[in-house]
Write a structure and sequence with these properties.
about 500 residues; alpha/beta; Arc Repressor Mutant, subunit A; Aspartate Aminotransferase, domain 2; 3 domains; eight-stranded mixed β-sheet; binds pyridoxal-5'-phosphate; WH_DNA-bd_sf; DNA-binding transcription factor activity; transaminase activity; aminotransferase; DNA binding
Amino acid sequence: MPALFPLDRNAPSTLQQQVREHLVNAILNGFIAADRALPSCRNLAKNLNVARNTIVQVYDDLVSDGYLIARERRGYFVNPDLPAAQPAIPGTGHGSLPALDWTHRLKVSPGQQPNASLSHNWQRYRYPFVYSQLDSSLFPLDHWRKCWRDAVSVQAIKDWSSDRYDSDDPLLLEQLQRRILPGRGIQAHTDEILITVGSQQALYLLAQLLLDEKSCFGIEDPGYPSAAHIARLFGARVQSLAVDKEGLVINDRLSGCRAIYLTPSHQCPTTVTLPLERRQALLEQAELHDFLLIEDDYEMEMNFGSHPTPALKSMDNRGRVLYVGSLSKTLAPGLRLGFLVGPAPLIREARNLRQLMLRHPPLNNQRAVALFLSLGYHDTLVRKLAREFEQRARCLSDALQQHLPDCRASSIGGSSCWLTLPAGLDGTELKKRAADHGLLIISGDSYHIGAGLPTNTVKLGFSAIPLDRIEPGIRLLAEVKAELAKKQEKEGI
Ligand SMILES: Cc1ncc(COP(=O)(O)O)c(C=O)c1O
């Protein structure tokens, strides 16, 4: 039995949780012999340099959870009724046989697709101009904790603790129907709404339901690479569609597509808003050529610069627009809560498909979010984020004008800005050099769907970087850019 193991006193989890985790692992991996008593509370506490009560509490909890049994005057033992322990190290017991070759077994290799512009350790950077992450100081801690507590009331647990194959949390559906969707100009019945594990799952479900090897999937270029990756996974041909300073260009290239993915409210990545006339023209084209539109409204109401434009879905009276929404940009991307709105027959099959994948997104999460919406906390949060992001956007815009006057910024909307560097300057090289200085930016090529787009672009997110770091960050970026330009000039590039 490990009577000594490392405890991290700076970790977010408590010492009690860490001790429990170590013991449970040791028990489940078969590291504790059934016939030998665990160390006494006093000894273990002494070894680990923690309070005796900490160990007493852990042992008591493990007894009530069935991992341990207490034998009078002999101490604590592993419960012999636990299922047989798993081998601790995968692969033991296989002798010297070579490892399996997986290359020809896997039918798809999603890992082959270039992925994620995101750095997983972005918090370590002093100037994280990352996109799609939130500054944790903006998280509505007290409101969320309250909802989370209410979501584990006895009644709430009764509501969510059993599987719900064919529906979602009714309160959440009602809140989306009454609170979120009307704010985007959308009216939907509850059988036209499906809760998903983020918009990612909504896109995946749609691709699996709508695409095959014979399909052509249209997508803005530059655009959201995840959507293209998913379409390719189902064998679809990905058709890149031009984007200009007003968003998706409506031209002949749209006509052969079975479905077109677009981000009309804030084009991803350029942030521009698709004007009304183009939206109308697009719907007409969809009718004429019989294609579907997948509207990703990922930033929903985060539109502080002007009056929010209603969703494309609000103009759709034929059920051609399949609307994808997400709470990742307001509440937290880690929560993984999104939703899909479309005609009832499509939603029914999406629900059936979702059931085969994961039955449903966790209902305790659904209930906590439903409460968060119903108590008006989400509205409060959106207002707070809008104020905060507006300030950050203004600060970023001023800093760009002051320090990078030769770069062209898109209208700054939502939570990011798309920056065009002087011709010849490579965004990927700038990103690499910036990272060496503690500055995290995203190079524009991360959003290229096809080939041939210019590489002198970068995306600067401002949802994760605190206000007071924006100006110094851009000043530093200007220095790094100047260095790169000098080097290229010397090399005659
Ligand atoms: C275009 C776009 N759609 C959707 C999302 C959010 O996806 P999810 O709801 O899966 O977090 C993002 C996040 O960065 C995005 O950029």
